[in-house]
Amino acid sequence: MRYFLLGPLRIEGPEAVPAGARLRSLLAFLLLNAGRTVPAGRLVDALYGDEPPAGAANALQSQVSRLRRTLAIEHGPAGYRLAADPDDVDVLRFERLARDGARAREAGDAGRAALLLREALGLWRGPALVDVADAPFAAAQSARLEELRAAAVEERAEAELALGTDPAELLEWLREAVAAHPLRERLRGQLMRALRRAGRPAEALAEYERVRELLAGELGTDPSPELAAVHLSILRGEQSPPPPSSRLPAQLTSFVGRDDELTALIALLGASRLVTLIGAGGTGKTRLALEAAARLPGEVCFVDLTSATGAASAVRTALGLRDTGSLTGSGTGSGTGTRTRTRTETDADADAPTPTHTGPSSGDAEAALVTALQDRNLLLVLDNCEQIIEEAALLAHHLLSRCPGLRILATSREALGITGESLRPLGSLDTESAVRLFTDRATAVQPNFTPHGPNSPLLHRICTDLDGLPLAIELAAARLRQLPLSEIASRLDDRFGLLSRGDRTKPARHRTLRAVVEWSWSLLSEREREFAAQLTVFAGGATAEAAALVCGAGSDADGLLASLCDKSLVEAGQGRYRMLETIRAYAAGQLPAATRKLTARAHTAYFLDLAETADPELRSSGQLRWLERLSTEHANLRAALVRSVGVAGSADGADHPRALRLIAALSSFWWLRGLRGDVAPVAADMLRALDGRVPEGFEEEYVLCVLAAGAGGAAPGADLARAGRIVAQRDRAFRQPFTAFLWAISAGPSAAAERPELTGDDPWSQALARAGAGHLHLFHSRVEEASRDLSAALSAFRELGERWGTATTLTGLAAVLATQGDRETALARTGEALALFREIGVWEDIADLHVQRAELLEAMGDLAGAQQEREWARTAARRAGVIR
User: Fold this and answer.
1) Are 646 and 690 in contact (CB under 8 A)?
2) Cα 428–487–282 angle (5° rounding)?
């Protein structure tokens, strides 16, 4: 099927366009993202705006369900995906054709550019998204597409003019474009050039007067230098204005995966005279800068500072200036003859900063640059500033303050730190973009490579494990010359050995993954290296407090973290600091064994303390807050447990009593978050390490370890029997209140009811025991007793403010009400329970509750509602990992 959004919404195929406005809006938004997964929250925002109504998420599920009856919409944990080829959606096809056309024109292939851009513009049948104009997302998307359309018209006009196309063919649609966008000066200039070529210079000059008056009246400004140059060229009777020079290296590969960043960077360059792209090595800063510079009108100069001995001299060389302090002719860029400017004249500003580089020609180089650039409109791309960051910063400030037509786009692993600098951080590629990049580079070495079928999970794993780092992905794709995809995926634990062959023409620091990271590492101070290496003990990032305590940095931690963030070795967000896995793998290898052991022990101690502090809070009104905190630290908690168990190469940190304490403290968290299956293998490793020995004083913790291993079917029979004997011989309450519940789940509620002495006297344990008794009464059809005990338990849980117990009790009361025939109230009880379960995120319980609601609705005769509940149950069960 083919889909059309550039004009009235239309589907070319057997399916009809949905009738409802909301469904059409949903379809349109999915089509704009065809082939990509869209998170549910983003869809809700697109359909309802910043203030969605209550139940918007449920309404979205219902709307998607209706669309799925006719369209291929996939659903996964990350969101929804319309399974359509992007080329079958006119918007996405237009964007691709326009992008490829612009690249072809920039590469000098005007014929191919014109063909591509004609096809792109021919896809428009009217205003974009006209049938969903009232949707919250439509206005911004329509404006974006209209801007792309106008840019494509300009690119086509440029290609047609370069081809020498008959001006009579150009004038009609150029006039229409100018009428639609009267303030776009590039379009005006192209119309003037076409009129001149058609032998109508007077009309071309009149067009200039019209736009000059319009700009003065609307914006209070004069025409741009580029448009003025066209005007002057026509006045002089020249056939064409002198083209702006562009000193950009040509690219041999396609640009993949950074379209949004490219659009944002171009917009930022229009608003700021100094923009710095910052990011870790290998994120593609240079390529993005080149792509942006190539799309901007006017003169451009690219300067690679990687091996420069002086910033000013490197820029001077790139501009083709002489080594003396004076310039002749072309150095001025004015095109009006010879111009000479002395060092004395340019040094009039005594307060100007001076670069720290003091080579014999640095001052002359700066003076020459000011002379050459003072009257020019030029974009200067300073690439790889980090190795001479202070000198690059001082030079940028010096030139920008004296050359009003100059703009600078810098790339660096840290900011230049100049007033007026606009920063554009560049992170990893998202998974979809990373897969596209891998596929693009893979087909260059293996033309029959496909990202679909059995390759798909391997490809997603490779891209995820490589942090979405463009350089790493390109190096991995290149290994398809020698290795199958499966072997590349299996060897990522040794990523530096695997990705050790790169492009021989690249700078040495970009040929291998190790070289990229080593370059960044070499720019750190000794203290920064030590601290960065210690940070690798954290498996899931760290707060500043945790980093300070575990790494022993004390009050220096904040400054060290800030410096590592500035140098793109660490990423910061939402109060946490994390390393890309590639950087973490390298830095871990720089940590001495003795320091690693001490830091690892501090890490385990910190997270054991966190787990034991959080455990009682999970049975209080602070449950959600502490669940969120433990969820954020799950990777660190698991790493501390693995280390304490002494497996997977971490035997130097083995501490079995501490491991058992961690298991006990985290058991309720694992249950509430549905993580028992994730930690079951580690618990089974613990049992194997103990080899039948139960440390004295840790009997209850041993039982919880057996139960955790049993959740994954990994608890040996001997351990289960041993745990049963420990419980049978116990004559007092468990220290960990959740133990009684988990044992009841394993042994059965009847067995637990026969051992009331195992239940603690704390309010939560008493409430849970009352709820258990109520469920047992219900199982034996003792409805009145069940209602009494469950109601009492509900009151107790609500008084505690504990959501899981409250929701579990509500489901029991709903079953009692259904038995009594009051299904309406029962449905309301399950709705309240469902809201609580969703707050906690217990997806297995959510799935069971949707089934319970489906049965209630079926009994009430609402078969459609019951079907929807069962679909939601399947979705929740898949998310819980219960079904595929």
Assistant:
1) no
2) 25
Asked whether 36 and 49 are in contact (CB, 8 A), the reply is no
Average pLDDT value over all residues in the chain: 82
CA 833 to chain centre: 33
d(Cα 166, Cα 128) in Å, to the nearest integer? Answer: 30
Q: Give the separation between CA 645 and CA 682, rounded to whole angstroms.
A: 8
Q: Which of 114-118, 364-368, 747-751 has the highest mean pLDDT?
A: 114-118
Query: Using CA atoms, how far apart are residues 427 and 277, in angstroms rounded to an integer?
Result: 10
Query: Is-contact 188 206, C-beta < 8 A?
Result: no
| Nearest Cα to Cα of residue 521 among 220, 175, 280 | 280
Computed on alpha carbons and rounded to an integer, the radius of gyration of the chain in Å comes to 33
Q: How far is 536 from 549, CA to CA, in rounded Å?
A: 14
CB contact burial 347-366 (16+ within 10 A = b; e otherwise): eeeeeeeebebeeebbbbbb
* pTM: predicted TM-score of the whole model, two decimal places: 0.61
Does residue 159 register a pLDDT over 70? yes
Q: In whole angstroms, what is the distance from residue 795 CA to residue 833 CA?
A: 14
Alpha helices in 696-735 (DSSP H): 699-710, 717-729
Q: 300 and 378 in contact (C-beta within 8 Å)?
A: yes
Would you place residue 359 in the very low, low, confident or very high pLDDT band (cuts 50, 70, 90)?
very low
Which amino acid would we find at residue 735?
A: R
Whether the CB-CB separation of 513 and 501 falls below 8 Å is answered with: no
Q: Residue 266: CA atoms inside 13 Å, Cβ hemisphere, count?
A: 16
Reported as a single tens digit per residue, the pLDDT across 487-517 is 788 777 777 766 666 555 455 555 677 777 7
DSSP tally for the chain: helices H, then strands E = 41, 12
Checking 830-835 for CB contacts under 8 A at 24+ apart, the result is 830/856, 832/807, 833/806, 833/807, 833/808, 834/807
β pairing state of 571-573 and 576-578: antiparallel
Q: CA-CA distance, 830 to 826, in Å (whole number)? A: 6
> Which of 140-149, 512-521, 577-586 shows the lowest per-residue confidence on average (mean pLDDT)?
512-521
Which pLDDT tens digit goes with each residue over 266-321? 888 888 889 999 888 778 888 888 888 887 777 788 888 876 778 888 888 777 66
Closest to 331 (Cα-Cα) out of 375, 379, 382: 375
pLDDT at position 324 is 43
